[in-house]
TrEMBL record, chain A:
Gene Ontology molecular functions: tRNA (guanine(10)-N2)-methyltransferase activity; tRNA binding
Domain (tRNA (guanine(10)-N(2))-methyltransferase TRMT11 N-terminal) ranges: 4-179
The organism's taxonomic lineage, starting at the top: Eukaryota, Fungi, Dikarya, Basidiomycota, Agaricomycotina
Protein name: tRNA (guanine(10)-N(2))-methyltransferase
This protein's record includes keyword tRNA processing: yes
Annotated GO biological process: methylation; tRNA processing
Family named by the database record: Belongs to the class I-like SAM-binding methyltransferase superfamily. TRM11 methyltransferase family.
Span of domain Ribosomal RNA large subunit methyltransferase K/L-like methyltransferase: 193-311
UniProtKB/TrEMBL annotation, chain B:
Top-level taxon of the source organism: Eukaryota
GO-annotated molecular function: protein heterodimerization activity
Protein's name according to its UniProt entry: Trm112p-domain-containing protein
Pfam annotation, one family: Trm112p
Keyword annotations: Membrane, Transmembrane, Transmembrane helix
Lineage summary: Eukaryota, Fungi, Dikarya, Basidiomycota, Agaricomycotina
Sequence intervals crossing the membrane: 12-29
Assembly behavior: Interacts with TRM9.
GO biological process per UniProt: rRNA (guanine-N7)-methylation; tRNA methylation
Length: 466, 146
């Protein structure tokens, strides 16, 4: 038997809400029934009623989903208090067990509005027909009854704090089961409070959402091939997984003082012993001995805005040198030798990443990564065209910055077939294949620095860069 | 969580933790990396430790993780690397019975032996991959890439 639960969400990252719920329910192996009416699953609203088999499942969601603020057993909703009370009376079988001897308190609050104290009191009194006889206990009640008024977004308009009081769109009522237990992690992982970070560090909330998309849990092994300063490693390890990180630039991993920066920050979060290892290499020239090692690959690939995508090699191939091979030059940051690198175009990198993931993931493993793209030009085909046999899209959530944005792509490996490691051969690049679909994220870096003007100046700028 | 206690004692706690902190190179990682220099495709595994400075550090035991990982391990390479570093606890042949005693030993060898400094050298082409602060540098030089 399914029961209705009222979920209250943080009003951020709308497109990440449903994928996160689905990931956590998959992790724990239960089903969520979503509302059928499109209006009731509008993610721009903070409320959603989900049907679950048990209260335990509601608690599990509240313990892991970053976007959940509250979960309640749902009693009623209405356009007015008359309506909600009428419906709540019909729900008596659900709450009558609390009438006799249960201590309780009320939580009356609003979204996009502040309810004045005096009316909060009125609201509480209007529920007196429920006739709860237990004592009111503001500190440690057995149950909390929660009433939420939902107001239209009045953003940008000036008004008195309590203006329009009572003119809500809808009011929601239920018994509070859990306050979102994962939401405070956004503060805990705040980059500014971290002992080691850099200008490529991913903000805490996104790092947490990414970790949830990987289904991180104890006993799993997760890989970030562009680990940088490690933001995603910390959150993934927090949920119990072992994490392996590599980066072409060892300075990102280490920072300036010892021990290595990523280890210091991991220790700050109590997860240093879940960092399996850190390694310096170019992912296109990688030393992995075999495939099918990881439960997930999670990463923020370089796209040339702050951390340029590079790969070993020279832009313009030199004729083979004659004479002795280059000697090792000691550098102050104790990297013995830093080979030259050449740019790595984003659509090429994205396609390589999917192939690498198919090789390196265990069957049913997930690839979770950000794909920056040009808002106006984006089409669904851009993402579809990156896929290959045995890799299937699970989620695609946009974080919109206006003219550009980034999409968190979650892909599942659906095959048990063995594949050979990718060749990372630039000869197969989208660029050179005239028939291939040209995605909006192609040459993202150049488009970014041109302010996303629609013109053919990209080729020119490439020429100028040399 | 030790570090959440209060912001004043933070620096004190933190430095005491740092004393036992460093990078690593655990044998599990060593077992997964092969030389990838251009043209070096046979006898390029396992890499040989050179001048290895090791440290032992506790890791979380997870039997499911170990059982799941075992099929990926090159057994003789693991036993050889452990012996090279002075740990002879693993049997030369991978046992069929994965009892708790065996898993504990495997856990120790795979996850608790850390190589902090030194290098890993390719048995075939002799490429030297230096390890500094527990981070192996697996980058190839220009003339070594395919
Ligand atoms: C967007 S940053 C990742 C930032 C990371 N999430 C963090 O928290 O700092 C991309 C990283 O990719 C690295 N990178 C660029 N090209 C690479 C390549 N070919 N192989 C491996 N790493 C590469 C850069 O050094 C940079 O650290
Ligand atoms: Zn070699």
């Amino acid at each position: 038997m399914l029961t209705q639960y009222l979920f209250v969400f943080a009003q951020v990252h709308d497109e990440f809400r449903v994928p996160e719920l689905l990931s956590i329910s998959e992790l724990y192996g239960f089903e969520i029934k979503f509302p059928e009416n499109p209006e009731d699953k509008d993610t721009s609203r903070p409320f959603m009623i989900l049907e679950l088999e048990s209260e335990e499942h509601a608690r599990l969601l509240a313990s892991r989903c970053i976007l959940i603020k509250y979960v309640c057993e749902f009693y009623a909703r209405g356009k007015s208090y008359d309506e909600i009370h009428e419906r709540n009376r019909l729900r008596k079988p659900q709450w009558e067990k609390y009438i006799e001897d249960t201590s309780f308190k009320f939580l009356v609050t609003a979204f996009n509005h502040t309810i004045p104290q005096w009316r909060q009191k009125d609201v509480v009194e209007s529920f007196s027909y429920m006739d709860f006889r237990g004592k009111i206990d503001m500190k440690n009640p057995d149950i909390t009854l929660a009433c939420f008024e939902e107001y239209p977004d009045k953003h940008g308009t000036t008004r008195e704090k309590t203006e329009g009081d009572g003119e809500f769109d809808e009011v929601w009522f239920g018994r509070l089961i859990e306050v979102g237990l994962a939401r405070p992690l956004v503060k805990k992982f705040d980059v500014k409070k971290r002992v080691y970070f850099g200008n490529t560090s991913m903000e805490a909330e996104m790092s947490l959402l990414m970790a949830n998309q990987t289904l991180a849990s104890p006993g799993k092994l997760v890989y970030d091939p562009f680990v940088g300063t490690g933001s995603i490693a910390y959150t993934t390890a927090h949920f119990g997984a072992f994490v392996f990180g590599s980066d072409i630039d060892g300075r990102q991993i280490r920072g300036k003082v010892k021990p290595p920066g990523i280890i210091r920050a991991a220790a700050q979060y109590g997860v240093a012993n879940r960092i399996m290892d850190l390694c310096t290499f170019d992912v296109t020239q990688n030393p992995w001995r075999c495939g099918e090692l990881f439960d997930a690959i999670v990463t923020d690939p370089p796209y040339g805005v702050r951390a340029g995508a590079k790969r070993l090699g020279r832009k313009n191939k030199r004729p083979p040198r004659e004479g002795p091979l280059p000697v090792h030059v000691e550098r102050p940051d104790d990297q013995p030798y830093v080979p030259p690198t050449k740019p790595y175009e984003l659509s090429e990198l994205a396609r390589d990443l999917v192939l690498l993931a198919r090789y390196m993931l265990k069957p049913r493993g997930r690839l979770v990564f950000f794909l920056p793209t040009v808002t106006e030009e984006y089409e669904e085909l851009d993402v579809q065209a990156m896929l290959c046999e045995g890799m299937e899209i699970v989620a695609n959530s946009l974080q919109n910055f206006g003219s550009w944005g980034r999409r968190l792509i979650t892909i599942r490996k659906t095959t048990t077939k063995k594949f050979s490691p990718p060749t990372f051969d630039p000869a197969h690049a989208v660029t050179d294949n005239v028939d291939a679909h040209v995605p909006a994220h192609k040459d993202f870096r150049e488009k970014y620095f041109q302010g996303f003007k629609k013109n053919d100046a990209i080729a020119d700028s490439e020429a100028r860069e040399d | 969580m030790l570090l959440e206690a209060c912001s004043l004692c933070y620096s004190v706690l933190y430095s005491s933790i740092l004393a036992v902190l460093a990078g690593m190179v655990r044998l599990i990682t060593h077992n997964l990396l092969a030389c990838h220099a251009k043209g070096c495709t046979s006898n390029n595994f396992p890499l040989q430790f050179q001048d290895a400075a090791i440290e032992l550090r506790d890791a979380e035991f997870n039997a499911d993780f170990l059982r799941g990982f075992l099929p990926r391990i090159e057994w003789p390479a693991l036993v050889g690397a452990a012996r090279q570093l002075g740990d002879a606890s693993l049997p030369a042949e991978q046992p069929e019975m994965l009892d708790d005693e065996f898993l504990q030993k495997l856990h120790h060898v795979l996850l608790e032996i850390h190589v902090e400094e030194g290098a890993m050298v390719c048995p075939n082409c002799k490429h030297v991959y230096p390890i500094s602060n527990g981070i192996p540098n697996m980058l190839l030089a220009e003339h070594e890439i395919g």
